[in-house]
Design brief:
By secondary structure, the chain is α/β, with parallel strands linked by helices. It has a single domain, classed as Maf protein (Alpha-Beta Complex), CATH 3.90.950.10. It has six helices and six strands. A six-stranded mixed sheet has the order 2-1-3-4-5-6, sandwiched between helices. A hairpin with an 8-residue loop joins strand 4 and strand 5.
Length: about 210
């Protein structure tokens, strides 16, 4: 394989999250691609000022591709609660207004605020949403886009010790919270895994026809 071909088999992940890198590396391995985190290139996180998951995912992918010269993959995800008009949505990670908080502190504050805003509402339907975008280059006019959802309800108190974020409040159809599932099961049913399963055939079918990737 030439150096140019080897480079073309790489794709940059617009994230420095090691868990996300490991998960997506496994999912993309059948295609023969090496997934590289943008942190390898000393890139800072892109701004995410947009009101929709798709716009933020595109912004992150374009940022990573522009600065590395590689095809890019990015996802934006969050929790959408019907009774709150879709909130916390794209603000999920920083729903509660804290400054300089650790991840556990921020998660606890987010969960407390979510329960406070829902109060005694009888309608507690919610879904985790993930939108994943793939770009061949920063100016790609035909981004590949896939969305995954995990449907559930918001509980009235946290349950379970696993996971992170809103997992202790997110109740599945069998009555367990995501925090009561093991990591392997969560990764199998997650919104991100569902989005990737929809994206993989697009990568094979659409990018497989392109000599550029």
């Amino acid at each position: 394989m030439t150096g140019q071909a080897a480079s073309a088999r790489q794709i940059v992940l617009a994230s420095g999250n090691p868990g996300k890198l490991a998960e997506l590396s496994v999912l993309l391995s059948p295609l023969g691609w090496q997934v590289r985190a943008q942190s390898e290139f000393h890139l800072e996180e892109a701004d995410e000022p947009h009101p929709t998951f798709i716009e933020n995912a595109l912004a992150k992918a374009r940022h990573a591709s522009f600065h590395t010269g590689l095809p890019a993959l990015a996802d934006d995800s969050g929790l959408c609660v019907d009774a709150l008009g879709g909130l916390p949505g794209v603000r999920s990670a920083r729903f509660a207004p804290l400054s300089g908080a650790s991840r556990p502190q921020q998660d606890a504050a987010n969960n407390a605020l979510l329960l406070q805003q829902l109060g005694d509402a009888s309608s507690r339907a919610a879904r985790f949403v993930s939108v994943i975008v793939a770009l061949r280059h920063a100016a790609d006019p035909e981004p590949l886009i896939a969305q995954g959802e995990l449907i559930g309800q918001i509980g009235r108190a946290p349950l379970g010790q696993g996971g992170f974020g809103y997992d202790p409040l997110f109740v599945l159809s069998d009555g367990r919270t995501l925090a009561q599932c093991d990591a392997q099961e969560k990764n199998r049913i997650s919104h991100r895994a569902q989005a990737m399963r929809r994206l993989l055939p697009l990568l094979q079918d659409v990018w497989g026809r392109s000599a550029a990737v």
